[in-house]
Every structure is written in structure tokens, then in C-alpha cells.
Write a structure and sequence with these properties.
This protein is of the alpha+beta class. The chain contains ten helices and 13 strands. α2 crosses α4, α2 packs across α6 and α6 packs parallel to α10. The radius of gyration is 19 Å and the shape is globular.
């Protein structure tokens, strides 16, 4: 407080424990470790339900976040779970069965898992699954594009992992070379100048950059978010700041979406992704 610094705690804890709320109430932004798994679940099942529950909570409780898809570590899964507190079972953002389904889907697409173990050596739970976000989505460019759009429209400051921006795939050779801690190397591939230049020619990369530019440059995202309640398979989010608006309408079952934008001067633009 003395130096007006913003501290960003990196804390993994089950949603049901409520630690994220405790930290947020102290005035800290939090890492949104819940969003990556929620988006994967939403795209796997074509449903907005659990994703909207979390977005609604961010808005109603004014929780400030740094959000993400992939990162230098794995895709968090422990964070989504429920937890027993003082003898009372608090539900998670996803049920245990749904979390297991997310884990199994990522593993079926080549991910590697990190577990938590107790003092007796027995596994307590899954902690994270290691994979590039693109590979976790089945290396489907439509899904990656939509996941990035959702990230840009969810409350919080977006953090973008370089390899996921370039639609990187699981690096098994690096993971195998890394031995004990090698599971993390699956999503830490070094990109050279040639890789960057080639990547910038790919449509999926350029589309993501277009969405990121909109998020960076539009004043709409400094305003208020309206969550339109719609069909379970459709996600509609609109940011409004004065005369400036930005709207996302996504059909989750088809991985298609549109983004409409109107600036302060009334100029309108439309981005369509099918």
C-alpha cells in the first residue's frame, strides 16, 4: 500500500474452498486458473452453463483477474473442484465427473498429467494436465480461435502464452528429455525467427491477433459487461462504454462466432468466423 504496488498472488486451490474470494476481498487481483478448464468443457459439450456461472460470479462479486488459456505450466484442473469446509461440502465449478471427463479428453489428445500425492505416497488428486492449449482442443483451429475470443471477452486482463498464440502442438521429445519435470516442457518449445515468420502467415494466428488487437484498442472493454441469457449452446457477451460497444455471439456446438464493434464515432465493424 505504501508504494501503491499491485501484487498478483499465484495460488492454486479448489474453488469450493473459496480462497480466491478471500484473496480478492483483500484487494488483490487473482490468476483465473478456472477459465482454461471451463472453456475446454464448454467446447467439448457445447454448453455455456458452467462458463456463464463463473463469468456471472466475476461480475457480481467484482473479482479482478488475470485470465489465461495455456501457460508455462499445465492446464489447471484441481482448481475447478469442490471442497469440504468445516464439515460442509462446497460444490466446485464443475462436478468431479466433469473434471475427470476434461482430464481424460486432454490425455486422449496427448496430454501428460501431474498428480498430487499424500505423505503415504498415495495419489490425492490430479493437479494439472500438461499440454499446449491447441493440442488440448484436439488441434482444431476453430476451437482455438473461439477459445481466444472467449478469453478476450471474459472479465479480466488477458495473458497470452506465446506458443498457444502460434497454435503450437505438444512437444513430446522435449517432455521426454526433461525426465522428472519433463511434463512441463511439452508446452515450452522455443520458437526461432523462421517459426515466427511462418506462424504469422497462418490464418489461425492472424485471426487471434485481430481479436487481441480489438481487446487492446477498444474502449468498450473499460465499460460494463452484459451477459445475455440465451440457448445453452450459444454464448453472448456485450461490453458497453458510452457509445462504444463490442459483442461476441458464439455457437458453441459449431465453434463459429461473430464479433460486432461500434466505436465512439459510430463506425461499425463485423468479424465473422465460421
Amino acid at each position: 500500500r505504501k508504494y501503491d504496488l499491485i501484487l498478483l498472488p499465484e495460488i492454486h486451490s479448489q474453488y469450493g474452498k473459496g480462497l480466491h474470494e478471500e484473496v480478492a476481498k483483500e484487494g488483490f487481483p487473482i490468476y483465473d486458473f478456472f477459465l482454461p478448464g471451463l472453456i475446454i468443457d464448454a467446447l467439448n459439450r457445447g454448453t455455456n452453463k458452467h462458463l456463464l456461472d463463473w463469468i456471472g460470479e466475476l461480475v457480481s462479486k467484482d473479482i479482478q483477474t488475470i485470465n489465461m488459456l495455456g501457460c508455462h505450466d499445465g492446464i489447471p484442473v484441481l482448481d475447478l473442484a469442490g471442497q469440504e469446509v468445516d464439515g460442509v461440502r462446497n460444490e466446485g465449478l464443475l462436478s468431479d465427473d466433469r473434471i475427470e471427463a476434461v482430464i481424460e479428453k486432454i490425455l486422449s489428445r496427448g496430454g501428460r498429467v501431474k498428480n498430487l500425492f499424500g505423505p503415504d505416497g498415495k495419489k490425492i488428486s490430479y493437479y494439472q494436465v500438461n499440454a499446449t492449449y491447441f493440442s488440448a482442443l484436439g488441434e482444431d483451429e476453430r476451437k482455438l480461435r473461439l477459445a481466444r475470443a472467449i478469453q478476450m471477452f471474459v472479465p479480466g486482463i488477458p495473458q497470452v502464452w506465446y506458443l498457444d498464440l502460434f497454435a503450437g502442438t505438444n512437444d513430446y521429445e522435449a517432455a521426454d528429455r526433461g525426465l522428472t519435470g519433463g511434463h512441463k516442457e511439452i508446452n515450452r518449445t522455443t520458437l526461432g525467427r523462421h517459426d515466427i515468420e511462418h506462424g504469422l502467415k497462418r490464418i489461425v494466428v492472424r485471426d487471434q491477433l485481430e481479436l487481441i488487437k480489438l481487446r487492446n484498442c477498444s474502449s468498450a472493454f473499460y465499460g460494463n459487461l452484459e451477459i445475455q441469457r440465451s440457448d445453452e449452446h450459444v454464448l453472448q457477451l456485450t461490453w458497453t462504454n458510452g457509445d462504444c460497444t463490442a459483442s461476441l455471439t458464439a455457437v458453441l456446438l459449431k465453434f463459429s462466432f461473430s464479433v460486432t464493434h461500434r466505436d465512439e464515432a459510430g463506425k461499425e465493424s463485423l468479424l465473422l468466423y465460421r
